[in-house]
Amino acid sequence: MSWFTRKQPSLTPDSEEGERKVKTEGLWLKCEGCGQVIWRKGLEENLWLCEKCGYHFKVDAVTRLKQLFDDGDFTEHDAALVSTDPLGFADSKPYGRRLTENRASTGLPDAVICATGRILGRPVEACAMELKFVGGSMGAVVGEKITRAIERAIVARSPVVIVSASGGARMQEGAISLMQMAKVSSALMRLDEAKLPYISILTDPTTGGVTASYAMLGDLNIAEPGALIGFAGPRVIEQAIRQKLPAGFQRSEFLLQHGFLDAVVKRPDLRQYLAQSFDFFCGKYA
Amino acid sequence: MSTSPTLPAATSFDAWARVQLARHPKRPHALDYIQKLIPGFQEIHGDRCFGDDAAIICGFGLLRERPVMVIGQQKGRDTKQKLVRNFGMPKPEGYRKAMRAMALAEKFGRPVVALLDTPGAYPGLDAEERGQAEAIAYNLREMARLRVPVVSVVIGEGGSGGALALGVANRVYMLENAVYSVISPESCAAIIWRDAKNAERAAAALRITAPDLKALGLIDGIVPEPGEGAHEEPDAATFHLSAVLDKVLGELAAMSADELVRDRYEKFRRMGNFFQE
């Protein structure tokens, strides 16, 4: 019977030596929260939240901005800004090459995207950090781009949102990176004096010089659930105090409990939370 | 924008030698300078929230006839003192005390002098619980707003954000053998080469010496040290420091509050313009 007779030889490999594995990479993902296997497409439609346990997957900077802005629509600024490797730094590989490689792998010029878009109608200056670009670290380019975004907001009299995801200041630019903390914080002083709102969104992970500057300076500081947030990283602390850290230490909920966050907000609720806050600060957007 | 700075030749010998000098057991600490610079120094304590951090000293007095608020990060000399001072690693209450002192100085129109000397902000459990990052961040922004002259001098180790939290000043100086870095050479080496023993190489690569920071445009000047280092002749070192502070405070005294805030903003706004468009 033809039911059991294969008409097309579709299962024969293309060549005898060729790969015989079926490529499924990227179709299914294992949830880091509950260990369940989830369909990638479903995850994307669900803002990268696990349907089963609500675990927040990390999202890249472009996806983040698309999720935040109305219709996923935004205008990027200062996209051409790139570092010149001022120290000529070389670790396991020269910093210049590291930058080139990171640009190729992420498709981004540096570790932050700054853009103007609308959130429930209201124009907002937003910056989203890219963790995959040299660990989301802040060097001269990140400092300059965020400072410019704040300055643009002062001119346009619009609110600022910064989504942080970073290991801190960028070691490969030495003290130049350190001074970016002061530079961005000074710009936030001017935003503050201009009485314009700034909401800092801390995502997993935000540590070091980024937490110790703009990420903690929001009129509201909010975080996604379960994000690691701290000054020193957990390993550094464990070394310093020579004991294991308690479970949940430095997670969003811990910071909320200790009074350093205004709220822990789930990703699907972020836009509404921002819009409602801006309405309170600036009056309803007409 | 500018592209690349012209840096002095980096030799790991020089950078590491300066790290050793900056950490020298006999190097004058903040209190050593304060006691000589300001006879009758009156210390103030506490952050009004949690406690009093001995790693940061705040107080006031006359520096060459000029009333100043002085803030200093203090390391200990002997073991007992080191423990009391937490090895010069401040906790959030230290930074908050410093901010309170600076706000007090601002209220009464007095200039602020900060002496920076810390391996870094304390990376401990309690410090995290009380918001180390928030305390540092808050100082950075509020120092930018101060309507009085602020002068910061790195006298030993300028340990990353822990030092910068007292470093948003109109003028920033470094002692000749002080270092100022985003990360300690040991930690940097541990990250790159997975071995803290490469700290000498890291020290050179990170560009942490006073001449390096001057060449990068991150500090305003270098305070000379006598002989092989400040520990050899503390009196001479104090004299140099006193002379620089007197001169700079004199210059800043001529500026209005608005000018001071603008001057400080523009100074940090320009920092690290090493990128291309």
Question: What does it look like?
Answer:
- The complex is a heterodimer of chains A (286) and B (277).
- With 286 residues, chain A is an alpha/beta fold.
- Chain A folds into two domains: 10-57, no CATH class; 59-282, 2-enoyl-CoA Hydratase, Chain A, domain 1 (Alpha-Beta Complex).
- Helix content of chain A is 33%, strand content 17%.
- Chain A is built from nine helices and ten strands.
- Chain A has helices spanning 40-45, 61-68, 95-106, 140-156, 174-193, 208-211, 234-241, 252-257, 270-282, and strands spanning 28-30, 37-39, 74-77, 82-83, 112-119, 122-129, 160-166, 198-206, 220-223, 263-264.
- Chain A has a seven-stranded mixed beta sheet with strand order 3-5-6-7-8-9-10, with helices on both faces. A two-stranded antiparallel ribbon of chain A has the order 1-2.
- The radius of gyration of chain A is 22 Å and the shape is globular.
- Chain A starts with 27 loop residues before the first strand and ends with a helix.
- The relative contact order of chain A is 0.11.
- The model of chain A has no long low-confidence stretch (mean pLDDT 91).
- The mean pLDDT of chain B is 94.
- Helix content of chain B is 43%, strand content 18%.
- Chain B has one domain (27-264): 2-enoyl-CoA Hydratase, Chain A, domain 1 (Alpha-Beta Complex).
- Chain B starts with 11 loop residues before the first helix and ends with a strand.
- Chain B has 277 residues and is α/β, with parallel strands linked by helices.
- β4 (82-83) of chain A pairs antiparallel with β9 of chain B.
